[in-house]
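Worked Example 4.2. Consider the chain below.
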Amino acid sequence: CYPHVYVACVNIGYNKEQYLKALQEANNHNGPSIIIAYAPCIEHGIKSGMEHSLDDAYLASKCGYFLTFRYNPDNQTFNLDSKDVDFDKYDELLEFLKKLPIGPKLEVKLTGGETSLYPDQIRLAYKKLKKLERYKNTEVIFTTISNGTNMKALIELFDEGILDPWGSKISWDGIYSASKSRKPKNKLYTDSYFNNNIKLLGQSKYADKVLVRTALTKNTVGNLCESALFAFDAGCTKWEYYYLTDADYYKDPEFIQEFSDQISDLMLAYGEGYLQIQNVDTYLYTKYILPQLYP
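Applying the procedure from the previous section yields the following structure tokens:
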């Protein structure tokens, strides 16, 4: 969320009170407001018909398909209003998905928390949701955005065909991921621990498929080039940095200069065409922050 924008996801079929509260808060906010509403329509191809739309809407939030929340910049509070969601209701989620029009491929992106620590739950979810292919002309694929804490488990899931390495990403905040960036409470998770996991990925047959990504922050910018070279030397061939949309320090002259120096070092290490062959978003981020590099 942008710091000055009121944002809410609402579902009148799930929680009418939350829906009305969001409208009131958005109206009272002195600034831009965005409300995303779950609004089923017969044009969406709902199989059960509009007479059951509120029931379907309730199930959409109850099974975790559509979460409701409110972010109010006036008091800088984020409220996750979907408090009774049961993410283990795979059968209910399957029934809900069967009612929707679905394209030739349905990607289930596993994010939030550390997905690599729960491989057995991923296997269960895959087994349950793969059943959708019996009822729909679609292919269900699972991908993840993970910190790679349990890289061995992720590689096993790739081997089993449960996770698709294409589209999967490892969020790694560089060579000082633990000490300078994430600072985990568990003393097991050191810089060497996460760096060794990058090496493990680089030694696997998925090194050219899984994307390694590094957050561009004040804690990582000073080692951006070194981190990228570490990932490449480890055998990983896909790397990008990504920036945080609400970070004001991207306007800081010292930050911009440090970032410019790091990008220049990468160009020297891999040649003038380096940035052009990287992820498209990465190219756009660089162009956004350092327009002088792109006349």
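Residues 273-280 have pLDDT under 50 and may be disordered. The CA atoms of residues 157 and 163 lie 5 Å apart. Compare this with Example 4.1 before moving on.
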